[in-house]
Protein: Proline--tRNA ligase
Amino acid sequence: MSKNLTKRSEDYSKWYNELVVKADLAENSGVRGCMVIKPYGYAIWEKMQAELDKKFKETGHENAYFPLFIPKSYFSKEASHVDGFAKECAVVTHYRLRTAEDGSIEVDPDAKLEEELIVRPTSETIIWDTYRKWIQSYRDLPLLINQWANVVRWEMRTRLFLRTAEFLWQEGHTAHATQKEAIAEAEQMMNVYADFAQNFMAIPVVKGVKTANERFAGALETYCIEALMQDGKALQAGTSHFLGQNFAKAFDVKFANQEGKQEYVWATSWGVSTRLMGALVMTHSDDNGLVLPPNLAPIQVVIVPIYKTDEQFDAISETAKQLMADLRKLNITVKYDNRETHKPGWKFNEYELKGVPLRVAIGPNDLANGTFEVARRDTLTKEIVTNTDIVQYLQGKLEQIQSDMYNKALDYRDSHITEVNTFEEFKEVLDTKAGFVSAHWDGTPETEEKIKELTKATIRCIALDRVEEAGTCVFTGNQSVGRVLFARAY
Amino acid sequence: MSKNLTKRSEDYSKWYNELVVKADLAENSGVRGCMVIKPYGYAIWEKMQAELDKKFKETGHENAYFPLFIPKSYFSKEASHVDGFAKECAVVTHYRLRTAEDGSIEVDPDAKLEEELIVRPTSETIIWDTYRKWIQSYRDLPLLINQWANVVRWEMRTRLFLRTAEFLWQEGHTAHATQKEAIAEAEQMMNVYADFAQNFMAIPVVKGVKTANERFAGALETYCIEALMQDGKALQAGTSHFLGQNFAKAFDVKFANQEGKQEYVWATSWGVSTRLMGALVMTHSDDNGLVLPPNLAPIQVVIVPIYKTDEQFDAISETAKQLMADLRKLNITVKYDNRETHKPGWKFNEYELKGVPLRVAIGPNDLANGTFEVARRDTLTKEIVTNTDIVQYLQGKLEQIQSDMYNKALDYRDSHITEVNTFEEFKEVLDTKAGFVSAHWDGTPETEEKIKELTKATIRCIALDRVEEAGTCVFTGNQSVGRVLFARAY
Structure:
């Protein structure tokens, strides 16, 4: 197949949009802003889900499911939340259609709901309305629940995976007896996300907290993991919120403590979404197509036969099948592409586009010599490997690719954190090198807002590991207690 | 804990509703007709999902995800489908809320959608609108796709799991080059469902086809599996539809065959839902609570310590932990309930209510004698087992419970299929013994409709293994070519 992919250096945004569609990850649907996640893309999402779900369960969480619809009045109960979430959303007003006189389908005006229902943009309100019934005593705490669900936010400008009206995600919602325990939970889940991003997706992240401006609507603290894409723009890859007692108070969720006294419950919520698919593509992929870390690749090794005669094909197939059997014993996902309808060159292109980490080609010469030609997707390099070494070689290579991809992304990220001390430098770095700009800030929302207006850069986070150091704000010259990370972001 | 469960013989319906809530499977939410699936219920659903998903993948299907919303006009494209599905449904008409002058939240009248969106009641239309883009040639076929999703049907009378406005399900949607292949697929998936119901859920089912009256809106043939609940009412547990070329024609999905000629594609769709949770409860459970087949039990073995002193507790805990470790090696899910806040009797009641298949009690005498007291949930019987045999005993018992539960349900089902030859008998059986009534029927929708009006019984299916025999219709006396199964149904 011919890839005809725009180069990143020509138009990064176009490259991304084309790649997502051409690599069969997702496409736009007939419904404004809603995407179709195609089988190949969904298979990657399933691998993310499985690993995250395992980590959630290992940390004591259980899954449950709450309604898709939220009565409009629920949003009014938590004042800051409503401003953030009850604005651009899908509103269900009727519950019946009817056939019009001209045979078309129309909304039945007699079937109007008494109270409009909002398609959940996030589930804090419906879940805390439920928790009121579930929590009476300290014995019911902590309540550690996660939900895998679809949510809808009526975005005007959408991009596949990065910003869609409907997206898939998980949302954890926990309830605790003490502030300390809730904060520990929020921090724990940020660490779970960071571990997942780095060790599973091979995406280095900065762990930090959001400034007041960038916090989740209703949160007292928002922990986040921030990744850096290859165009130097940041991407928020996951957030974990300490919600204080805001939702408990809004929904009257109290518990009897050990002394029998009624107290409001402490809350967290945390989530990652199909946006991670966008982060995956933009961190690793290149002008030839996807580059997938072996942990997330639906196919880890593809075997392509190269032959002219039926006899050659049969002999190669025998070798290929033995290799497949050996690899499967090691839980390596392998595909033998024996389609006669496509030439090897076409197949090579296809698996490059799809980011299959290792490609094994077997031709008549290989059979004669007892060798395989192995190509690495991430480096586009080839090696000849002998029959006796092949299985161990492939297994080792998959591990190496996983860590090489992480290190490559880490090198890029680390070389794109630039300390600046003047606003001129700040703007220059943003416009040339991009990446994270590490600068002193006076701590006020006003300054943050002003910088955003002037440069489109926001404070991505106050890194948890930042050094406390006295300095002067890059914009106002006022006092600062340490640097924060600015960037333009997705 | 005290169970206070209504007895099945007193009020079967009340028993069901109470049990679903008390056993922590699900509860009603603040949103009309929408349920909350609680963690214990969801854990059972996850086990169903995992097994079904494995079976779908083994039969060559891939998962994907399609939009939640369907433009209203899509439903008009397939005439019979619209009557079945585009009536009672949730309609999104607006995309924004605003704060009113009095501070309340109201729908923004300026944010009206040009075309209303329907929250999917099933996804044939949106999926076939997508398939038009995916299918060009016979090489693109078969297309074998499944989706795990939530759907919404605006039911007026709802019951937890059995009939809810929103429910969770999977829907398979496949496209084929030939009629024969599509029919084979629809039959295969019915067999997958039957195998799952029988071997995994321990629920015997009758495989059959629906009459024209009961077919899916838009299908040429609906295959189904029908189960029988303990109150003698039938429950449709899964359906698989041969859709002919109806959707391909409605959405213009053609392919170039091997000769290069354009043909319409052949379709199937098939689904099971959280309704299966209702079937599970009503097939096996008793007046003491849930009875779960080991394959679906979130906890397969629970260990309860019985002690008076701390020394006893420590010694029992040591034995319990060894047993847990041994069982986990065999992939048996085990919980040690060492809570000091609850008495053993309370715990016994709780695990009975929750349907844990095996309960192991360990007291000081057991420690002294090297024994365990093992109680079976399904039979409520107890045995004393020695230390040396316990692991193998428990493993074997789980297998036995799984097959005993199936056989018990099978005996009940088989003894509740009654052949009748007159309409008097027909009505008497329905009103006394209930179950399936096997009767000759003249094959007309009119007779079927009339019988339904008079008795509330519908034709559940024409069993695939029915004997072809000449007879006379139990209602009209007209000719019949074989018996069909009638029942009142959920």
